[in-house]
């Protein structure tokens, strides 16, 4: 299949939200607390897209994944309990989700590769991310893709595992 990673459009909020709802349910079924507090929600997705930070992974016209990408914009990362690998510019990935219909095909890893390419295209050599302590699938993906555990950050009062990958040209 051919995959394309591009900025999301406001007209795509409904299919993006459907994918995020599937991921919220998956987290719940896995016994995770992540995303069980009304976040993310359609308003968050709309803000992502309006700010040019919402991205989709598509095959043909079908949206199969979503992520928000922020450049140097994650206040919580300034208060890490631990130490980042770098202190230069960075891309943050949030809200990474793949459609139920496309799970198990390595597409989260493909999306992360596209996120890394996005960083490099902006001459940024660091990608940072975080996930819940109990989100084992995401932790495994980060570790398999060369991300280094750097410590803990806090979102809405909850500790999260923080990761960074330093990219090379």
UniProtKB/TrEMBL annotation:
InterPro entries noted in UniProt: Acyl_CoA_acyltransferase, GNAT_dom
Matches recorded under SUPFAM superfamilies: Acyl-CoA N-acyltransferases (Nat) (SSF55729)
Keywords noted in UniProt: Transferase
Molecular functions (GO terms): acyltransferase activity, transferring groups other than amino-acyl groups
All residue ranges annotated as the N-acetyltransferase domain in the record: 3-169
PROSITE patterns tied to this protein: GNAT
Protein name listed in UniProt: Acetyltransferase (GNAT) family protein
Native species: Flavobacterium omnivorum
